[in-house]
Amino acid sequence: MSEENKDEMVLLLKTLVDKVKNLERAVYDKDNLLMKSGYVMVNSPTPHTAHESGISGDTIAKMEWDDIHKMAENLG
């Protein structure tokens, strides 16, 4: 890589870092309307995905299509 290309790359990286810092300031600023309105959350809740059901992949594999359709209707 030539010296000119290195200088351009360094300048580009500095510009990108400055833009990211400006975006962070805009998001985390105390007077930011997005933070106050709740559109941007710093600590968002994590959904609980552990769901215990008595149906396994093997059980579904052995079911008839009519049974699967009935089970799907009961879920929704």
Explain how this protein is built:
The chain has a domain at 1-42. Helix content is 62%, strand content 0%. The chain has helices spanning 3-28, 33-37, 57-61, 65-75. The longest helix has 26 residues, at 3-28. The radius of gyration is 26 Å and the shape is elongated. The N and C termini lie far apart (60 Å). The relative contact order is 0.06. The model has no long low-confidence stretch (mean pLDDT 78).
Tag the structure with descriptive keywords:
single chain; 76 residues; mainly alpha; 4 helices; elongated
Q: How would you concisely characterize the structure shown here?
A:
0% of the residues are buried. The termini are far apart. With 76 residues, the protein is mainly alpha-helical.
Gyration radius (Cα, Å) is 26 Å
**Outline:** elongated
- H/E topology pattern: HHHH
Low-confidence stretches: none
- Helix/strand-derived category reads mainly alpha
> Hey, roughly how much beta strand do the residues contain?
under 5%
Q: How would you characterize the largest beta sheet?
A: none
| Helix-residue proportion | 55-70%
- Total strands: the figure is 0
Average pLDDT, all residues: 78
Count of DSSP helices?
4
Q: Please report the distance between the alpha carbons of the first and last residues.
A: 60 Å
